[in-house]
Amino acid sequence: MSLGPAPTRLRQIALVAKDIERAKQLITHVLGTEVVFEDPAVGQWGLKNFLVPIGGDFIEVVSPFKEGTTAGRLLERRGDGGYMIIMQTEDAKKRREHIEAKGLSRVIFEHDLGDSVCIQYHPRGIKGGIMPELDSHVPGPKNPTPIQSRFSPWHACGSDVERYTTSMRRTQHLTLEGCVLRLQPGDLGHEAAAREWEGIFGVARIRDLLAFTNARLGFIPGKKGQSEGLVAITIGVKGKSEYDAILKRARDAGLWTDGGIDMCGVRWHLALTGLGASQGKL
């Protein structure tokens, strides 16, 4: 029996960077956010990381400190850029059963904390050149609507829920609006890519866009000489003064070019929100 789409949130985008301290300084300064967690557990894979809140969602940056890591090999091939798309669904275990039964992808890591589950899939054969992860939280008295509640708990931020929730609320003027993945050279099927992700991970689709509950993910055709993977991230900014402040910091840092911010190997677009309609681009 097939399993149709389910409400799915784009909860976290992970980047990989050679110089993690430089990435931390740039992202926190330019976007006006803060480091909310550094996970010592990723050291088992030879990585360091940090997470920053974008309102109720997150940007993570990882960096290898050992040889032979997946992140390190990605850096060697592409340089700084995208690493993972981390989605939140209602029941990640149920979706995994569907994926494995249909032979749609292969699980490479799974971690069950009781009230949450994290499942990573091998990126081979999945369009977009990025590692997908599909997680879920079990609804409970303190977290009745994990996907719908903007500031709901998130397992990747550790156990101090009060601390990181406070950080999320401090950045409530920011929203994760969407991102764009480039297909591999020669692949022009951006709508087929969206259809594939819909079929595997259960994210609803509107033509060639994945329609998360909070954001959109699009694909662009592959181009000779350019690697597949994450091309752009769009951040919503509520309020003209906050928007202008980010623009000024980006310009002062020499990162603003041709209407966008070039940072950590990714093009960052800003969308002015809270004025009736977003004014920006995916």
TrEMBL record:
Domain Glyoxalase-like: start-end pairs = 14-105
Q: Which InterPro entries match?
A: Glyas_Bleomycin-R_OHBP_Dase (IPR029068), Glyoxalase-like_dom (IPR025870)
Protein name stated in the entry: Glyoxalase-like domain-containing protein
